[in-house]
Amino acid sequence: MDKVENTPAADRAAQTRWGAVLAIVGAGVVAALQVGKVIIAAPLLRRDMGLDMASIGTLTAVFSVLGMLGGIAAGGVISRFGARRMLLLGLAATAVGTVTGALAPGYGVLLGSRVIEGLGFLMITVAGPAALQRIVSAGNRDFAFALWSCYMPAGMAVAMLASQAFGDWHAYWWCAGIAVGVALICVALLAPPTPAGARLSWRGLRQDTADTLGAAGPVLLALSFTLYSLMFFALFTFLPVLLTEQLGLPLATAGLYSAIASAANIIGNLGAGVLLARGWRRSTLIACASATMGAVALLIFGSALPAMPTFLLCVLFSAVGGLIPATLLGTAPLVAPRPALTAASVGLVMQGSNLGQVIGPVAVGGAIDRYGWSSAAFIVAAAGLGGLAIAWRLRRVRTARL
């Protein structure tokens, strides 16, 4: 692959608009909160609806189905209509899905509400980076994208900590909806408008898709994000259940431990920004993190250790793993085939993330139901080995010191 020299709007920004950056990152956090609320409410949903582990995994996975299928298409729509407008629309869709879920009388409606939230999540997570690159200077790009990559662990940590105040999952859903409304107002007030692009057509969308899929960089980043998300959600989707049912912790303690472990991911997110600024190769960070996550998972899911050592291993798993999403999201705009395909390249990378979110909970939930907790360790370890292989391949992409 030839070296790509992109000059996105961020390169021409005179100064970084940090208020807008924080509003956009906040939108990502409340989107991720909608993922975390299901994870921590899993014991309550099992109690009230009689759900098995596979059903809980499906509730988490369906959130990402639209993202898995439509990332590149979302990038094209965002390029056409503007990142800020689509970010606001994504927040509105998330609010509608959350309210629908809070009113759900049974599993079918709750599952449908997750599809609506999945649409909102797709728009937010693809529009967020596209909006950021227009409001940050070139010197602040890695740090700004490192902040953005914190949205998932931060949102999940907030969800898990907030769970301490709720004994009923319906009330939890209502409060999550209020948080979405606050984020919508902040983005509307602080984020600057982004210009619309060229007229959208099916022919143009097909060509953009073909060009994006034909570039090695975005495809490898997407595959790497798939494996990372599989590993991360394989653990954190079922961590509260692991701590309560296998290690005997009360739900409140399990929620607190899960929140701390999830928040540890932020250390890796921000650390990646620092290490990249100091000249570390992006492929090196991905390789080290993938190998560590795979090895640590063998100990966590073995359930042979007491609760506290298991918890500390979860913290290590999360903190080191955080190096991966920050590196991938910061790299995506740099490997786009051309500047106009930046949003599509980010969309493809997010498709990889959502694919991992679908595969991980469903595969691991089914394996746990059938073969026991130790079976999950082998799935995560295999994904870690795959991450190592992709990192080696990334070194051959001659862009941005991969």
How would you describe what is shown here?
The chain is an all-alpha fold. The chain contains 19 helices and no strands. Helix content is 76%, strand content 0%. The longest helix is centred in the last third of the chain and has 30 residues.
**How large is the share of residues in beta strands?**
under 5%
Task: Indicate the radius of gyration in whole angstroms.
Answer: 20 Å
What is the global morphology? globular
**CA-CA gap between termini:** 12 Å
Helix content: over 70%
Can you write the helix and strand succession as a string?
HHHHHHHHHHHHHHHHHHH
Instruction: Provide the low-confidence segments as ranges.
Output: 1-13
Helix and strand content put the structural class at: mainly alpha
Could you give a short account of the major beta sheet?
none
The number of distinct β-strands equals: 0
Spell out the key features of this protein.
402 residues, mainly alpha, 19 helices, 76% helix, globular, disordered N terminus
Write the layout of secondary structure elements.
Blueprint: H1 18-40, H2 42-49, H3 53-61, H4 65-81, H5 83-102, H6 107-132, H7 141-148, H8 151-162, H9 169-190, H10 202-213, H11 216-236, H12 239-246, H13 251-263, H14 265-277, H15 282-300, H16 307-321, H17 323-331, H18 342-371, H19 374-394
